[in-house]
Amino acid sequence: MLNIVIFGAPGSGKGTQSERIVEKYGIDHISTGDVLRAEIKAGTELGCMAKKLIDNGQLIPDALMLDILSAKLDTLVGSKGVIFDGFPRTIAQAEALKEMLAAREQEVTAMIELDVPEEELMTRLIKRGQESGRADDNEVTIKKRLVVYHDQTAPLKEWYEKEGKRCYINGLGELDRIFADIVAAIDARI
Ligand code: AP5
Ligand code: MG
After folding, report:
1. CA 27 to CA 20: how far, in whole Å?
2. What is the distance in A from the centroid of ligand 1 to the CA of 125?
3. Which residue, 75, 91, 110, 188, shows the most beta carbons closer than 10 Å to its own?
């Protein structure tokens, strides 16, 4: 089983590179952001709650996020592994993921960290906001998302370093070069 955590700030390319990883390795993709946006679109109670937080750049509480993730994992049958995109985002989520996988006699194979300068993140997300209309891609909310990332999510770099799972990738530049670096990092661990 190949379990990859794709990690990085908002706009670092997690979703973009996940698509390629899924295609190459035939694993399942769980994007917690996509799951939440689907709930918002469907107008569920969870969606209404998530919308308020997402539009304000804040995280959904850990306990709720863990329920969502474990339900999602349970739907996968005959899976060759998972790419976790946008999860974990807090130390508590990382610890819970480790336990959840251990209960299935699995572990995280690699944490792929996409490093992109803040100026570039802002440029990418403003552009996507204009093209796709994603509600949290506006300057005010992007700034809040970046603050939350630095405060609550960035400490996971050290956490995964200690776990011996962290693979640093320069996430600035050509998509093909970034993907090749990711593949090299994954292949070195399988
Ligand atoms: P989520 O959907 O995970 O958003 P995010 O982390 O802010 O990241 P993005 O999806 O915006 O960016 P990405 O890294 O996927 O980049 P992408 O490939 O799209 O989460 C949204 C919200 O949901 C959170 O704020 C939170 O409220 C909530 N949430 C989600 N998970 C949660 C959790 N675990 N716990 C609590 N709350 C949670 O690329 C961005 C753009 O750049 C695209 O337009 C792309 O085409 C372009 N691009 C990509 N790569 C390159 C490149 N190399 N060069 C130029 N452009 C590029
Ligand atoms: Mg994404």
Report:
1. 10
2. 8
3. 110
Question: What is residue 145's three-state secondary structure?
Answer: helix
Taking the C-alpha atoms of residue 185 and residue 167, their distance in angstroms, rounded to an integer, is 7
Q: Which among 188, 178, 158, 64 is positioned nearest to 115, based on CA atoms?
A: 178
- Phi, psi of 85, deg, nearest 5: -115, 115
- If you take atom 2 of ligand 1, which residue's CA is the nearest one? 33
Give the tens place of pLDDT for each residue, 14-70.
Answer: 999 999 999 999 999 999 999 999 999 999 999 999 999 999 999 999 999 999 999
Percent of the chain having pLDDT more than 90? 99
| Helices 62-74 and 32-42: angle between axes, nearest 10 degrees | 90
